[in-house]
C-alpha cells in the first residue's frame, strides 16, 4: 500500500472552524438549503435547470452548508445531488492557498476510531467537508440533532452523481488506489458507463519510495479536477496530510474507501432494502466474515454510545 510515514472536540458550539476557515460558521449559517426531485435541482427554493448555472452559483457560495455534530464529528447537512454539485464547484473554484480541497466521509466505524485514536481524529478535523456515509447516521440525526440529514451520501453512490455532472461540464478524474487489476477493471467499467467522462489517469495504491514520488509528480502534472483516493481509513487521510501540499494542480481530493472494488465488480452492494434499513454493514460482514466480523463487533457498540453521547 502507499508508503505513509488528541481526542476529538467534545464542546461543539454550532460552528465549524476546520483548517483555513472554509467550514467556519457552517452550522450557524443555513446557506444553501438544497433538495432534489427527479432531475430538478432547487437552490434556495428556486429551480435551477442548468447544471452549469448551479455550479457557477456554488462557486461563489462554497462551504455555506449547515453542519451538525454526530458522534463528535461535524457532518455536512446536504443530500447526494447537492454533494455532487458541491464537489464539481469546488473542483472548478480551487483554493487560494493552492492545496486541493479535502472531502472525506464518516460512518459508525470512523466515529469509533476517531474517539480511540487522537491521530485519526486530527486527520478528520482537517477535512473541508465530512459527508455522512452511513445510513445509521441519518437515523441518529432525526432523534439527536437540531437538523436532520436529508439522506445518506455514500461514496459508492456519490461517485456516479459526480460522474454524470462531470461528463456535462468537462471535469476530469484521476483514480488512485486498489490493486492494479481492480484499478484497471474499475476504469474500464467507468469508460463504458460514462463514455464522455475524462478519466485522465489511474494507478494502483501500492506505491512507495521513488515510485510514489514519481506518481505524485505525474498526478500534479496531469492536474485532475478531482482525485478519487481509495486507500482505506486512515491511509487515505494520512495521504492527504502528507502529500496534499504537493498537489497544487488538483482541485478536490475525495477519499473513497473501497469504491474501486465496487466499480470493478469485485464487491457487491447490499440489497437496497438493507441499505435503507441501515444494515449494509451486516451485508459486508456476511460477504467477508473473516476480515470484518471482529471489526464491526467491536466498533458498532462504541459507535452507538458515542453517537448518543456526542451528537447535537
Distance between the termini: 37 Å
Largest sheet: 6 strands, parallel
Poorly predicted regions:
4-49
The proportion of residues forming helix, as a percent range, comes to 40-55%
Q: How many DSSP helices?
A: 13
**SSE pattern, N- to C-terminal:** EEEHEEHEHHEHHEHEHEHEHHHH
Number of strands: 11
Percent range for β-strand residues: 15-25%
Coarse shape: globular
Mean pLDDT: 85
**Which strand order do you get reading across the main beta sheet?**
7-6-11-10-8-9
The assigned structural class equals: alpha/beta
**What integer value in Å does the Rg equal?**
18 Å
What does this structure look like?
Residues 1-45 are annotated as: Disordered. This is Exopolysaccharide biosynthesis WecB/TagA/CpsF family protein. InterPro entries: WecG_TagA_CpsF. It holds the Pfam family Glyco_tran_WecG. The chain is an alpha/beta fold and 312 residues long. It is 46% helix and 16% strand. It has 13 helices and 11 strands. The chain has helices at residues 51-59, 80-93, 108-116, 118-125, 135-144, 155-169, 180-193, 209-222, 235-243, 259-264, 272-277, 280-287, 289-309, and strands at 34-37, 40-43, 46-48, 67-70, 73-76, 101-106, 129-132, 172-177, 198-203, 226-230, 252-255. The protein has a 6-stranded parallel beta sheet, with helices on both faces. A 3-stranded antiparallel beta sheet has the order 1-2-3. Strands 4-5 form a two-stranded antiparallel ribbon. Helix 2 (80-93) crosses helix 6 and helix 3 packs across helix 4. The longest helix has 21 residues, at 289-309. The radius of gyration is 18 Å and the shape is globular. The model is unreliable at 4-49 (pLDDT under 50).
Amino acid at each position: 500500500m502507499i508508503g505513509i510515514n488528541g481526542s476529538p472536540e467534545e464542546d461543539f458550539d454550532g460552528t465549524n472552524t476546520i483548517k483555513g476557515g472554509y467550514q467556519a460558521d457552517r452550522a450557524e449559517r443555513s446557506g444553501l438549503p438544497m433538495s432534489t426531485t427527479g432531475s430538478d435541482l432547487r437552490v434556495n427554493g428556486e429551480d435551477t435547470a442548468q447544471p452549469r448555472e448551479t455550479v457557477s452559483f456554488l462557486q461563489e457560495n462554497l462551504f455555506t452548508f449547515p453542519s451538525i455534530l454526530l458522534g463528535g464529528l461535524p457532518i455536512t447537512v446536504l443530500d447526494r445531488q447537492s454533494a455532487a454539485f458541491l464537489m464539481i464547484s469546488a473542483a472548478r473554484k480551487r483554493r487560494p492557498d493552492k492545496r486541493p480541497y479535502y472531502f472525506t466521509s464518516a460512518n459508525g466505524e470512523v466515529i469509533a476510531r476517531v474517539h480511540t485514536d487522537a491521530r485519526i481524529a486530527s486527520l478528520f478535523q482537517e477535512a473541508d467537508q465530512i459527508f455522512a456515509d452511513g445510513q445509521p447516521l441519518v437515523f441518529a440525526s432525526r432523534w439527536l440533532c437540531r437538523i436532520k440529514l436529508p439522506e445518506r451520501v455514500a461514496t459508492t453512490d456519490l461517485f456516479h452523481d459526480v460522474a454524470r455532472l462531470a461528463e456535462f461540464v468537462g471535469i476530469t478524474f484521476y483514480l488512485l488506489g486498489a490493486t492494479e487489476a481492480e484499478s484497471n477493471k474499475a476504469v474500464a467499467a467507468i469508460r463504458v458507463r460514462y463514455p464522455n467522462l475524462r478519466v485522465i489517469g489511474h494507478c494502483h495504491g501500492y506505491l512507495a519510495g521513488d515510485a510514489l514520488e514519481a506518481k505524485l509528480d505525474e498526478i500534479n502534472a496531469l492536474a485532475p479536477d478531482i482525485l478519487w483516493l481509495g486507500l482505506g481509513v486512515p491511509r487515505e487521510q494520512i495521504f492527504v496530510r502528507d502529500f496534499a501540499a504537493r498537489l497544487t494542480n488538483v482541485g478536490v481530493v475525495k477519499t473513497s474507501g473501497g469504491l474501486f472494488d465496487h466499480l470493478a465488480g469485485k464487491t457487491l452492494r447490499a440489497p437496497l432494502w438493507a441499505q435503507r434499513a441501515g444494515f449494509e454493514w451486516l451485508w459486508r460482514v456476511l460477504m467477508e466474515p473473516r476480515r470484518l466480523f471482529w471489526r464491526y463487533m467491536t466498533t458498532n457498540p462504541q459507535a452507538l454510545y458515542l453517537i448518543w453521547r456526542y451528537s447535537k
